[in-house]
User: Fold these one by one.
Assistant:
Number 1:
Amino acid sequence: MLRQVRNMHVKAIKMRWLTGGDNYSYLLSTQDKTKSWLIDPAEVLEVLPNLDSSERKSIQFIANTHHHYDHAGGNTGILAALGKENIKPRVLAGSHVSPATTDVPEHQQQFTLGNLLVSCIRTPCHTQDSVCYHVKDPETSEQALFSGDTLFTAGCGRFFEGNAQEMDVALNQRILQEVGEPNWSLTRVYPGHEYTKGNAKFVRKAIYVNPNENKHFDNLEKFSLENDVTTGRFTLADETQFNPFMRLDDPIVRKAIGDANGSWTRVQVMDKLRKLKNIM
Ligand SMILES: [Zn+2]
């Protein structure tokens, strides 16, 4: 599965799919493929066979979106295997809970990867060390967001180490502001799991119950029913149109969850949405 985003390359590697899982690891590479970041390579035996020798040599950083084992659990094994080929990437993660971490980024800290600019967006909630990585090619404006378990297509992560207010800040302030509105439609979203089908099912059952209530959601639902892989197919602008966790002020969303008068705070709406999703 090789996706070309013009000047950058994003290779999505399925992990744990044969055993009922739905994780993705990603190889983000420059146009000439001489430099790359390997994002969340949790399953060594599934990731390494998907990388050829020049791809392995190109890896400058292993980057984790958060410390959970199905994202960070492969760091040590990948380092050991690459070390045998004398390849020694650094490990970028939101905290030292991720094994072998060498670099912990500040919010909005920037890195360069060849001609690409990577900005680290700290989004505490799913875990306190959650980081999203926004990548931009300044020449073409092509962009990608590696959103871990914070933002999923038509959904968001569980609040394991945080609360509804933190998720509202993460999704609707930090990510949106750091990417910047002119870039929302240019930024493809690459989440940590393929959850789109389940998320669409929830949204249809609990939020946009009738067709035509949200045309963007209707299109997303159709796509998710016809495609097992949706990562990289939708943009941040799309999310603002169909993802209820990014539409906390939408009267249809509020009415569907019990706020008929639109009098709840955003945090109350976020909290109720997540609770409804948790019990589905
Ligand atoms: Zn997680």
Number 2:
Amino acid sequence: MSAFTPARYIEEVIQEIKNECRCAVPGFQKIISFNFEDYGISPTLLWDAEILIQHVIRDGDFVPMDEGIQRHGDSIRHFKCKSCGRICTETYTEYSINMYRSFVIFDEDLRSSKINYALGYRGFEQSDFDKITDFIKSTDDANYIANLTKLP
Ligand SMILES: [Zn+2]
């Protein structure tokens, strides 16, 4: 079982990831790209992705390239990595006062086909989570961090 709480996650995982540019790490790209719309399910967020996007992209070593545009209820903003120059697109959507989600896709798509998650989902329908088969509950914290930091 993963022992990460959100507080420990920020201390250990975020600190490790922020040590250097992770843009070319397939597992890093994969986890922040989680989008419930890929599964035909109701709005669902992945906590791992929300925390990573907040700390590594919005408050990390990425520079916003625009103010953001609104499209069909989504807020879309482009960011550039200060170290490698790669560009990514953040989509943020609110569905109700306490339901939202974010996901990030890099222009240079290097995503792995599967990734482990540690913190889990929040969504309108718990039964929907079973339909997500490429994000797999982590059982090993060290392996989880390795997947988000190791280049192929
Ligand atoms: Zn980078």
Number 3:
Amino acid sequence: MNDYYLKLNSQFLSYESIMSYLKHNEPPWRYNYHIGQARIPSELIKDDFFKNLSRFQIYPLLIKMQPTFFHKWHTDATRNAAVNVQLISGHSHTVFNDDPADKFGHKENIKELIYEPNGIYLFNTQKQHAIMNLGCERLVLSCTFETDDSYETIKRFCLENNL
Ligand SMILES: [Fe+2]
């Protein structure tokens, strides 16, 4: 069973709202290595999943990654899960594999999360993942939870509520 991510049933409805905001505003980007993160106003996200997940104190975060950048295997330091929508792919690949690498740093049986346009994904950030961006700047909406609930708890809630 895939415990790396869950594709939600709904389609993302707030792409235009975010892009219009970015056209007229410069979000407060904070940079860590070659990755920028910025919170954006919650009102921009019109989708039901966002309202339904408010019990986990969800907030919208944009993450941008520079062109031709590889973000090495890692788990997120400060969050158990996220709800991701890829806004601009940049010809990027997101892969998971939670097995330890061999002594050469190699991994087998990696699994790719192939983002569909307007697809919404609950992402298990406590499983090892890596991102390779081969193209232009990549932009992802990565909604984050302020509560400390586990990926499994949030996943169960999503399934029970048909999000
Ligand atoms: Fe990550």
